[in-house]
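## retry 2 of 3
previous attempt timed out at serialization; input unchanged, resubmitting
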Amino acid sequence: MTLNPLLASVTLCLFPFALAAQDDTAAAAKPEQANPKEALAAAVKRMAKLNGVAFRTTEAQNSAMSRNIAKQMGDLAGMVIAGDTSVRGTWFDGILRATMNDDADEILTYRGRMVARNDDVSWKLRRNRLASGGKVPFVLDPGRFFEALQALPASALSVKNHRASTYKDKAVLIIGITLEGEDAQDFALSGALPAVSSGMGGMMMMMRGGGDTAQLPDITVDLALYVEPATGYIHKVKSRSYQQSTGGGGGFQIKVQGGGLGAEQEEEEEEEAKEKDDSGKRIYKRGLPVRRLGDDLSRMDYDVIFTKHDHAVPLKLDPKAKRLLKIANK
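## retry succeeded, writing output
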């Protein structure tokens, strides 16, 4: 077969451009060469449109009041300092399933309705309560989380820090942002994250006197998002919220109700934490800025791991649960 000279000439001319296009595509997939602002915006948009995802969360509260009282209680500090709270869940086609308390408790939510069960109690209609009557811990709503991020003004998603890394053999860009002022308040009040606790873990404070006036939280939210530029998926989110404590009016008494030993708070290390290096540049650890904890500053850590992006298996629902949730054809 004889090759057409004109065709051969055109092919040879176009060959370098084809190689260049392939190189550009490969380079774009490399986190160190990706534009962090564009990668973040694309990833938030991508995650907000997911049809399903599995997740695992860990919540750790470190309230100023608990720390200050724990210092005075010595060996009894474990009654005040709460431990971590872990939740596993799957979100698919608007239905959210979550387990907590070492998978002993299970809940399902759909369009504002909720049912709960455990090993001893079948599905029961509940509202923010477990089958046993206990309070449901904060459960992430992946759709709400990314919709709340997407709803923020572009200026709120300004990249403060970024670095290329790997996460579970995936090339990622760890992007750090900080929400402050009204942006932080809107994000926190949207239900995207748990509220920062101002309570005392296993203790109950009984207020006497004074009013209960609603007040917007004085809050700062730091987020580190593990973005995979090649797919637009976010595989992990580390968040740390700081809230200034406000004094309540009137007197109060404290009654110990008990509670298990919690995670170490490392107060001394926190108080001595160095926020900036010798050149005055903010220090970041694991994608989050280091901040000192004063006597009146509470902190909440909330970490999320996402898996099975758009590949979460449709939930097989118990007939009773479907009836209570008023779900048809799912």
